[in-house]
Amino acid sequence: KQYRLQDKSLSKLIYTQPSLLTPTRRDVLVLTSWLAPVVWEWTFNIDILNEQFQLQNATIGLTVFALKNYKEYLEQFLRSAETFFMVGHKVNYYIFTDQPHDVPQIPLHDGRKVVTLQMPSFERPQDISMQRMEFISIYSKQRFHKEVAYLVCSDVDVTFQHKVGVEILSPLFATLHLHFFMAGRETFHYERRPKSQAYIPKDEGDFYYTGSLFGGSVAEIYRLTAACHQMIITDKINNIEALQLGESHLNKYLLYHKPTKILSSEYMFNKKICFIIASLANLNNYKEHLRLRNL
Ligand code: UDP
Ligand code: MN
């Protein structure tokens, strides 16, 4: 049986009926107090999500920065993304680099392309963290909104280890930083000096989000990156630099603009501490389900 909607055919899907008295997970938080889902393995059916996403006929943009010697990470990043990132969907890889001629050419599946965007190099390593916000905001306004529905903004020094699909997409999503998985808010690496725009007092804060993976609709990512860029400029004028640079500003923004979806730390794997966390949280199969790996 086929259902027709917006000229797209949806095929019949067979799956277990949702049961109101059977939670999908008992061991982890799957919904925040502002009703944003927290995405963990076994909380979603990717076939249903893929079918629903096909109706939008949307392209997903993946922004990544590779300046100076971080260009070395590009090839394995792109190869792993072709294997695991948004399989079966249309993807534009937006690669910001100071060395456009060194972007590797790798075979891409249908509907996927690499767009190289040249940008100037930077003086201090800290600057790239700041410039990322500025460049994503400029290009969101000028270009991305015409080409993609969603943006996913990632570090380049990671590889995809398992499938990362449309389950992550939402108007505004961010990823739980693995280091602060079980930590109290007062220990988060938020900026604690009131002089900085990124300042968060000890009695505020939901989660500590990583600056390595976040995203959303182009409109929301424009707002987020433009706001973070503004905060960074103000800090510069006031002669202060936030503790974790762009990540501090991202955390400040997300405290007052709550994300509509949260990716569990499964999406941010750092091999050094994953074992500790797996034992703390008693998540037996945690390791197998980590989706991204820090290099
Ligand atoms: N980056 C870059 N060149 C550099 C340093 C950083 O292109 O010399 C980009 C790259 O995309 C990297 C991101 O900035 O993934 C964040 O830097 P890094 O991964 O070193 O930060 P960390 O993951 O240690 O917080
Ligand atoms: Mn990194």
Give a written overview of the molecule.
It is a single chain. The strands form three sheets. This protein has an eight-stranded mixed sheet with strand order 3-11-9-10-7-4-5-6. The protein has a single domain, classed as Spore Coat Polysaccharide Biosynthesis Protein SpsA, Chain A (Alpha-Beta Complex). β1 and β2 (8-11) form a beta hairpin. The relative contact order is 0.16. With 295 residues, the chain is α/β, with parallel strands linked by helices. It has helices at residues 46-56, 74-84, 125-147, 218-237, 246-256, 274-281; strands at residues 2-5, 8-11, 38-39, 59-66, 90-97, 112-118, 150-154, 158-160, 172-176, 209-217, 261-263, 292-294. The protein contains six helices and twelve strands. The structure holds uridine-5'-diphosphate and manganese (II) ion. Manganese (II) ion is lined by residues 155, 157, 212. Uridine-5'-diphosphate (UDP) binds at residues 64-68, 70, 125, 128, 155-157, 212.
